[in-house]
Known about the structure:
Elements: E1 4-7, E2 12-15, E3 23-28, H1 39-57, E4 61-68, H2 73-81, H3 86-103, E5 111-114, H4 119-131, E6 135-138, E7 141-144, E8 165-171, E9 174-178, E10 182-187, E11 202-204, H5 206-218, E12 222-228, H6 232-247, E13 252-258, E14 261-263, E15 266-267, H7 278-283, H8 288-297, E16 304-306, H9 308-330, H10 339-357, H11 362-381, H12 389-404, H13 412-421, H14 429-444, H15 448-460, E17 463-467, E18 472-476
Parallel strand pairs: 3-4, 3-12, 4-5, 12-13, 14-16
Antiparallel strand pairs: 1-2, 6-7, 7-10, 8-9, 10-11, 14-15, 17-18
Helix pairs in contact: 2-3, 4-5, 5-6, 8-9, 9-12, 10-11, 10-12, 11-12, 14-15
The chain binds one RNA strand through α1, α6, α9, α11 and α15.
Amino acid sequence: MPLRFYNTLTQELEEFHPLDGKTARIYTCGPTVYNFAHIGNFRAFTFEDILRRWLRYRGWGLKHAMNVTDVDDKIIANAAKQGKTIEEYTANYTKAFFEDAASLRLETPEYVVKATAHIPAMVSAIEELAAKGCTYSSEGSTYFQIAAFPGYGKLSHNDFSGIRSGARVDVDEYEKGDARDFVLWKAHKENEPYWDSPFGKGRPGWHIECSAMAMQYLGETLDIHAGGVDLIFPHHENEIAQSESITAKPFSRFWLHSEHLHIESQKMSKSLGNFYTLRDLLDMGHSPEAIRYLLASVPYRKKLNFTFEGLKAAAKSIERLRDFEARVSGTKLPAGRVEEAAERSREAIRQFEEGMDDDLNTAEALAAVFEYVRAMNTALDEGRFEEENRWDAARVLEVFDCVFDVLKPSGAESVRQGAESGEAAALTEAEIEAYVDERAQAKKARNFARADEIRGMLLDKGIVLEDTKERVRWKRK
RNA sequence: GGCGCGGUAGCCAAGUGGUAAGGCAGAGGUCUGCAAAACCUUUAUUCGGCGGUUCGAUCCCGCCCCGCGCCUCCA
Length: 477
C-alpha cells in the first residue's frame, strides 16, 4: 500500500506524491514566541517531525518552511509590560523554543522564517491582493474581503454564503466591513512598532505572513501544509483565500491537522493548574525521550490524553526496547543465521511501514516492533537466534528509531537530572565496571555480604545490575 | 444552531463484516546464594445503549446517551 494522508480539504485519505516527484514542500505553522511553548504545542511539532522523518524514509526530499511569529498583539503587550523592545522580548523565547525542540529531538526545518524579516514580501502580497480588488481599507487598516473569494470555507467545510456584508462588527479593536473579513495590515497605533507601507504605517495581520513566506520559499502550490486543528479556521482558511486570490492556483495540495491533547482527561488550562510547558515537565524529572515517545505514540488525528501514568508507561516502553537492544548486542551467539528470525525481522519492518504509510499510524507501527521484540526474546531463550540475526534486529531498531528517535539516552539532560537527583552521574563507567568485577569475585568466594553491599551501593547511585547467565549487565536507572 | 471528532480491558491505544494488535499496570512462572533486573505466560465471550440490514456486526444504517473541538486568541 502506498503512503496515504488524510486531507482535511477533501476529507479523504489520499495517496501522497510530491508534485515534482522528488521533493516534498511542506509549510508548518510554527510558534508565536511570546512565552515558553507548552506540551500541547509540542504535540503538533512532534507530529510534524514524525511527518518529516517518514517522508524522508519514503525517499522524498524535504523542503520544509516553518514560520516564527515574532510580532503580534500579545508580543507587543508583553514586551511593553517588561519595558523591552519586541526584538529583545522575542529573542529569548525564540531561543527557548529551539532549545526545547532540540531536547525533543525535533529536526529543524530547512527554512525557519521570522515574520519581521519578511515584511516586504507581505506588503507586496497585500499590494497584489489590492490590485485584484480583494481588499478595502477602513480606519487605516487594510482588510481582505471574503466576498471576493468564492471558495471561502472549503477547508473548514463551513458555508459562509449567508453572511451579510455591510454589517459592521467591532472586533479586535478594528472596524471591518463584514463579520468574516480579516485584517491584512493593521493601522499603526501609538507606542506600537510599525513598518511603512503603501497603505500607511502599520504592521501585518497574522494570516498574511504564512501566505507570503510559504510562497516565497516553497512556490505557489505546496505539497503539504500542516498545523493544529484549531488553525483550520480561520487561519488556514484565510491563508487559502489570500494565496489563491493572488495565484489562482491551489495553495496546498494536502492539509494535515493534528488533534489537541488533554491533560489527565481535562483541557489544559492555567486555571485548572494543569498547564505544562516542556520545561515544567523536564524540571519534574521526566525524560525528553519519554515525552517524545508519548507524544508520538498516539496517532496524530486522535486526541491524546497526556497523563503522568502514561508518561511512566512511555519511559518503561523505551526501556524495554533498550533492554532488547542491549541483550542482542551483548549476548554471545553462535555463527549463522536462523531464517525464521530473519523472516520475522522482515515482517516487522513490513508491518511498521504499513502502519506509518497509513496516515502515520504510529500505534500500529509500534505494535510491529514490540511483537518482533517479544518473538526475538523467545528465540534468544531457545537458541533460535544466531550471530547474523543481530543485523536483522539492528535493522528493525534502526527503522524504528529513525522515526521515533528515543533509543539513545539524552546526554546533557540526563546528566543534569542525574546530578540534581543524586549522585548517579558521579560514577564513571570504569568505576562501575570495577565494582561489578569486585562483586563477581566476592560472589565466587561466597562472600555474599560484600557482594550485596556493592549491589546496594550501586543501586543507591542509580546503577541497576542484571545478573544473567553469561555475564553481569548494568544500566543507569 | 452549523461543521467536525470520539466513546474498545485498571490506564493508554490499534483494528476488521466472520467472532478483539501493542504498551503500561496486575497475576503467575523462568533465572538467582537471596534478591533485583531481564525474559516468558496470562488478563475484554466482548468493543457506550437500543433497534435494523446480514448466514454473521465492535466494524454498515437509524435513533439515543456521554465526552470533546471549531464557528473571528489558540498546536
